[in-house]
Specification:
410 residues, alpha/beta, eight-stranded mixed β-sheet, seven-stranded mixed β-sheet, globular, binds flavin-adenine dinucleotide
């Protein structure tokens, strides 16, 4: 990351064309994108929590439990920003096929593969740490980026600029504030943007396993009905990464058990395809609450929301981060295409950004929410219909190709 800056109230405000609030992959990508397009950027990150034990850093060799299936949109943007080449490629697995299984006696199935889609890979499984390390390294060399660490207290927007006031009295002035501060976005709250929120009453349990049989680059997903949605994504070598979107009570039970017991639970689904599973690092299991968050708008005067600040979707399609990358790409495009007399935070520019994103976000919200709800019910007629649907879709190559193209971000 660039040098950290701090400032007291007596000093002049920080000035830049863009102020990006957030410290995740989407905020860093937006910062790089604006900087590489020639705009000055202030990246506002929260103050780092003190380390309890300075020696207790993350083990770099260990496999990160947070992984993302990144699609072609993400690949293209990260390649343009020269981040993709800086990733540790020994730790990335290409997804060659996706195999989706239904539930019950008439379990349907659906398969997509890279060969059928005429691409080298459907997606790439990348660890959160690998992605963030590459972004941090790129930011260190990015021109015009200043990193400010502080707690934001107030956001004010006027006709031609916006100011973010920090707890220590400092101020960041810019033409545009980008809210990339996640699902609980402070920026969104400051703009009084309302949200629709619905809990899925599920938690995603994530961890990694070694598998006895090779995965051949296959990503497996089981819609189980009562037990939620189990996904095993390929990691390099004979390893897989689990994302189990389990109903709250089941997730709680899983988290109270050992990873050996979790492997036994998974054998019901995975034994056939992957053989016995062996926990990779018992300490890396995590569980995350799942909810749908739909802000009523993704722009406000001098403000644009990107990433989870703009939409939180169920992870069953592995698309939240990909939507965020597409937000950044479309925001950069809207800014680059503006008329000469318009500033980068101009109302029209932001309206074009919001329009460009509308369909993509809505489709992903409807698709993921619809599937999550469809497969959450245990009613037999619904179960039969959804499995028939999977089988039918598998036999409709045109529709399947269109669905796949959209999922790949092509
Ligand atoms: C189990 C699971 C699996 C997933 N798998 C996939 C997948 O395979 N593919 C995919 O595309 N997506 C996936 N997603 C979605 C993906 O994780 C998110 O969409 C993505 O992490 C959002 O990134 P973000 O940077 O917008 O938000 P976050 O990662 O939440 O980052 C927000 C950042 O903002 C900072 N912040 C918060 N408040 C402030 C503030 N006031 N000031 C400054 N900074 C602040 C936080 O510290 C944080 O660093 C998955 C999600 C889950 C839960």
């Amino acid at each position: 990351m660039p040098c950290m800056t701090s400032q007291t109230s007596s000093k002049a405000p920080f000035q830049s064309a863009v102020c990006i609030v957030g410290n995740g992959a989407i905020a860093k990508t937006a910062a790089l994108g604006f900087a590489q397009a020639g705009h000055s950027v202030t990246l506002l990150v929260p103050p780092a929590p003190p380390l309890a034990d300075p020696a207790a850093g993350a083990d770099d060799a260990a496999w990160d439990a947070r992984v993302y299936a990144l699609n072609h949109t993400a690949h293209t943007l990260l390649s343009t920003l020269k981040v993709w080449g800086a990733l540790d490629h020994d730790r990335i697995a290409a997804v060659d096929a996706m195999i989706v299984n239904g539930d019950g006696a008439q379990a349907g199935d659906l398969a997509f593969d890279a060969f059928g889609a005429h691409v080298g890979a459907l997606a790439w499984i990348v660890e959160d740490r690998n992605l963030n390390q590459a972004l941090d390294a790129a930011l260190r060399f990015a021109p015009h980026v200043q990193l400010v660490s502080g707690r934001a207290m107030r956001l004010e927007a006027s006709a031609d600029n916006a100011s973010v006031h920090l707890e220590d009295g400092a101020r960041i002035d810019s033409s545009l504030v980008v809210g990339a501060d996640g699902g609980q976005s402070w920026v969104r709250g400051q703009c009084d943007i309302g949200i629709d929120y619905r809990s899925y009453h599920q938690r995603a349990v994530v961890t990694n396993f070694a598998c006895a049989k090779p995965h051949h680059g296959n990503a497996y997903q089981w819609f189980t009905g009562a037990e939620g949605i189990v996904a095993l994504l390929p990691l390099p070598g004979d390893r897989v990464s689990l994302v189990w979107s389990a109903p709250d009570a089941l997730a709680e039970t899983i988290m109270s058990e050992s990873l050996g017991e979790l492997a036994v639970r998974l054998a019901v689904y995975a034994d056939d395809k992957l053989g016995a599973l062996r926990p990779l690092q018992p300490e890396t299991v995590k569980d995350l609450p799942l909810a749908l968050i739909r802000p009523h708008t993704i722009v406000a005067p001098r403000v644009a929301l990107v990433g989870d600040a703009a939409h939180v979707v169920h992870p069953l399609a592995g698309h939240g981060m990909n939507l965020g990358f597409a937000d950044v790409a479309d925001l950069l495009t809207a800014v680059a295409a503006r008329e000469e007399h318009r500033s980068i935070g101009d109302e029209r520019v932001l309206a074009r950004y919001a329009r460009a994103r509308k369909e993509d976000i809505l489709l992903m919200q409807l698709a993921t929410d619809g599937l999550a709800r469809l497969f959450a019910t245990d009613l037999e007629p619904v179960r039969i219909a959804r499995n028939l649907g999977l089988n039918l879709l598998n036999k409709l190559p045109m529709l399947k190709r269109r669905l796949m193209s959209h999922a790949m971000g092509k």
